[in-house]
């Protein structure tokens, strides 16, 4: 979260989801309502899809 310059409880949940996605076997898709934060946390290694 620090590297992505994010903070707060909501962002902590995003960080757990991102960490799980980054460790998963590729390809990985994360469906989220907060695309901006997930892009910042996951980078280009995870496909982020907004709902």
Word description of this protein:
The chain has 51 residues and is of the alpha+beta class. The protein has two helices and two strands. The protein has helices at residues 9-23, 35-42; strands spanning 29-32, 47-50. It has a two-stranded parallel sheet with strand order 1-2. The longest helix is centred in the first third of the chain and has 15 residues, at 9-23. The protein is globular. The model has no long low-confidence stretch (mean pLDDT 86).
How are the SSEs ordered, and which strands pair?
Layout: H1 9-23, E1 29-32, H2 35-42, E2 47-50
Parallel strand pairs: 1-2
Helix pairs in contact: 1-2
Structure keywords:
globular; 2 helices; alpha+beta
Strand line-up across the major sheet: 1-2
Distance between the termini: 22 Å
- Could you tell me the mean pLDDT? 86
Number of helical runs? Answer: 2
Outline, from the CA principal axes? globular
Q: What structural class do the secondary elements suggest? A: alpha+beta
Kindly provide the radius of gyration, computed on alpha-carbon positions and rounded to a whole number of angstroms: 10 Å
Helix content: 40-55%
Beta-strand portion reads 15-25%
Instruction: Identify low-pLDDT runs.
Output: none
Order of helices and strands: HEHE
Our count of domains comes out at 1
The total count of strands amounts to 2
Can you summarize the main beta sheet? 2 strands, parallel
